[in-house]
Amino acid sequence: MKTTTRVAVIGGGVVGCSVLYHLTRLGWSDVMLLERSELTSGSTWHAAGGFHTLNGDTNMAALQGYTIRLYKELEEITGMSCGLHHVGGVTLADTQDRFDMMLAERAKHRHMGLDTRIVTPEEIREIAPVTNIAGLIGGLYDPLDGHLDPSGTTHAYAKAARMQGATIETHCMVRETNPRPYGTWDVVTDKGTIHAEHVVNAAGLWAREVAAMAGVYLPLHPMEHHYIVTDDIPAIYERATEHPHVMDPAGESYLRQEGRGLCIGFYEQRAKPWAVDGTPWDFGHELLPDDLDKISDSIEFAYRRFPVLAEAGVKTVIHGPFTFAPDGNPLVGPVPGLRNYWSACAVMAGFSQGGGVGLMLAQWMTQGECERDTASFDVARFGTWTTPGYTRPKVIENYQTRFSVAYPNEEKPAARPFRTTPMYDILDALGAVWGQQYGLEVPNYFATGDEPRYETPSFRRSNAHHATAREVRAVREAVGINEIQNFGKYLVTGPRSRDWLDRIMAGRIPKPGRISLTPMLSEAGRIIGDFTVTCLGEEVFRLAASYAAQAYHMRWFEEHLEDGVTLTNISDLSTGFQIAGPRAREVLAACTRDEVAAMRFLDARRMTIGMAECIVQRVSYTGDLGYEIYCDAMSQRSLWHTLWQAGQPHGMKPFGMRAMMSLRLDRLFGSWLREYSPDYTPAETGLDRFIHWQKPAPFIGRAAAEAARDQGPARRLAAFEVAAIDTDVHGYEPIWRDGEVVGFCTSGGYSHHLGTSIAFGFVPTAADIPGLEVEIEILGDRRPARRIDTPPWDPDGIRLRG
Ligand SMILES: Cc1cc2nc3c(=O)[nH]c(=O)nc-3n(C[C@H](O)[C@H](O)[C@H](O)COP(=O)(O)OP(=O)(O)OC[C@H]3O[C@@H](n4cnc5c(N)ncnc54)[C@H](O)[C@@H]3O)c2cc1C
Fold this sequence. Notes:
Bound molecules: flavin-adenine dinucleotide
Strand content: 25-35%
Helix content: 25-40%
Number of strands: 37
Oligomer: single chain
């Protein structure tokens, strides 16, 4: 066995083999895979082998599309069969909400180039005749759905990797992974120790145990899962062509032809987590004992939807475990806190996603970044705050809601409340309707009087609409107060802080007492952060960005840290409030003996507010006159009482995230992962106006950003006023012009202050003219929209800066 390698991939399931293949494809051939038993000895061997492109998340759908298209290529390279059956599939809708979701998905597919179509119940009967169409409203047909042979496909990946130089060691159990001082790893196996530059954890069912060998916790958990194969069914084997797949979300089932019969699997409500205290090492090519009781309701439902099942005998019952992350997406990428240690875990649909996961990880490892935004599957979307106690209920919830309608405003309840600030009970008593960000409870809005403390999940404007309008009015007409725990905050100190920030950030680094806004770029010149930088002294800076991107940003900072700079994540140590609105200055002045009136827009000061030592920043995402006031967590309640008391004579009201996201629209402020993400460049989004081109520092991404600027972007972010009726843009809706899809939306919403619906979206630069008229397709309805050329409210920034 080799004793040195560039990469040691642990795990020979479909995901490990795909990673191995993609590494060789991108040019790394000195790579090896270590498998404790035979290939496919985890979840892979007993999978049903189904694949589909549909995924509410556009980047995940792209990974799935790539995976499916790859199989033909794999067959050609290796001469092996993946056992492909491209039979197409239809997803059923029996409620208006489910149908709305399909309309929204279908609309997204237009600009993604996916050829799905909405079908009527009669068409469903023709496509999938075993379906009882009673009660159905329609469905979504996807010609790319299909299934394959799990074992054959895994071995095809393995062969393709071997053909390009990779080695595979089976019956080679990894016992330890020990880091060396310079970032390489000793991988201790039954057959000896391998010195590897990089380690990839692709250990599937044992990913938790393998992660623990490196001293980290990965938030994933195995769940039990059943599918049933029937005896021969004449209505199936007498068909001239193979019966397509049918997904029935109401019955939480997926169905397809298997040989001369059918195969049906369930995501049942009586879901059971498996191996709660750890996956046994002696679990191998075996199944779990049948537990038909837990799927009896689902079977009964399936008998009504697919009556042929009731007459067919059961040939085989498959009951096996596979792993999920709390949100159901894979955990991919460099594991925060470790060097050269990568995750390819929690891939719950290895045959839909495994190829894409392998490609993304291999790009990350060999090229330093991926071709697309990784936010939805990056292992860093969860922080060190995750625990098995959090992960387990979230994974159960995810399993149970796998086929539920995914609403854009939905807040799922499991494992909550978990992380709360000292303000939780005070805000709760004020009627907070809570949302969750990165594990933290954050008020979405405040219900008053008889209003329910629950926002109805909906694709249309929800019951939060009126409460949000009330909060927006309070900000625009008087003063609002909002907790600002949910920013990612970092303290940068040391003699080389300014130089380092000049290299890490593309924008201007402010003078003492001032604030600047700046993009942070990757080497390829893509947007990996939009930061507020505050200079509190020549060697003391604060940074603020998205709260949910903490682990993502910390990983980047740590990778690029230099001597003479200390960076600390103070996100949960520094908290406070934002006050915003025309009376904000008077409220603040009433709380401090420090000078408030002289504070200009983008000034920062240390002040005593009531009894609390604070940092006050004259900036507000509401676009209004506003102040962000930071203190330590122990002073937060005292600071609240001071501000709240002083605010009452001025009509102060609390406001939440729904109001904040409405207020930002008035000034056309973009937001992280919507308008600004690694999928886009500064030149495309207009963030290039914050790049300090004249600074001498060779900031990261400079060459790429300059090239993009000189070339000019092919598409540009624009804002639109939309003639919406009762639903607004959420993201990825197609933009039509002259009967053609020319772009897509990034986000939108209802501006309560302006009384209009606003959307952001990309359009080709050539079409991006003042007053451009387009149509935006929302839930299947093409609504007229007109480009907004300047912020519709306070266009000269008089309120903001005055
Ligand atoms: C009943 C059922 C039906 C399914 N149906 C589908 C479907 O239709 N479509 C679909 O896409 N997905 C399906 N899945 C899910 C699919 O099986 C998984 O997504 C996929 O198998 C995950 O592959 P993996 O490589 O990540 O993990 P695994 O298959 O679990 O592979 C991990 C490998 O790592 C090895 N390993 C672990 N620890 C070590 C160590 N210390 N040293 C060396 N080797 C180690 C193991 O032996 C194992 O071979 C189904 C799952 C189940 C249970």
